[in-house]
Amino acid sequence: MTDLRIPACLLTAAVLAFSLPAAAKEIVVQMKNQGADGSMVFEPSFVKAAPGDTIRFKPTDASHNAETMANMLPAGVTPMKGGMNKEAVLTVGKSGLYGIKCMPHYSMGMVALVQVGKVTPADIAAARAVKMPPFAAKRMTAALAKVK
Ligand SMILES: [Cu+2]
């Protein structure tokens, strides 16, 4: 009869594999002319990510781009600027709040917020203090309310 016992070393390896941090995720955000929150939107407009995750901004509709906001980006992070009608890829390393905007539709409120890891009350206060056009401010305020 065949011995079906699993060698102890393999069991140990399996236990270790499950106790490691979750593998980096890939999160898709669509750039759309019309979405659940109205016209000219990132969908979803709030993303919660972990350090190491990648966020892909897809040009679902034409005439959009995705870029980080210079005044809402953790210190030391390299800004990201996606081209028009191009997928933009943001791999996040540092914890904090990353503001994203579509340049042509910023004044129409086309903004998104990426929370990476844990953020402090000071991070949230700093993000709330960032000045932006009224429609952008309205959506950013709604996104900031989802930070936790
Ligand atoms: Cu746009």
Structural class label: alpha/beta
- Number of separate structural domains: 1
* Span of the ends, CA to CA: 56 Å
- Helicity, as a percent range: 10-25%
Q: How many beta-strand runs?
A: 8
Which overall shape is indicated by the principal axes computed on the Cα atoms? globular
The CATH fourth-level homologous superfamily: Cupredoxins -  blue copper proteins
Bound molecules: copper (II) ion
Instruction: Write down the CATH class.
Output: Mainly Beta
Mean pLDDT equals 92
Domain Blue (type 1) copper: 29-116
Cofactor: Cu cation
GO molecular function: copper ion binding; electron transfer activity
InterPro entries: Amicyanin/Pseudoazurin (IPR002386), BlueCu_1 (IPR000923), Copper_blue_Plastocyanin (IPR001235), Cupredoxin (IPR008972), Pseudoazurin (IPR012745)
Give a description of the structure.
The chain has 3 helices and 8 strands; from the N terminus they run αββββββββαα. It has a single domain, classed as Cupredoxins -  blue copper proteins (Immunoglobulin-like, Sandwich). The longest helix is centred in the N-terminal third of the chain and has 12 residues. The radius of gyration is 19 Å and the shape is globular. By secondary structure, it is of the alpha/beta class. Strands 2-1-4-6 form a 4-stranded mixed sheet, with no helix packed on it. Copper (II) ion binds next to loops. It comes from Sphingobium cupriresistens LL01.
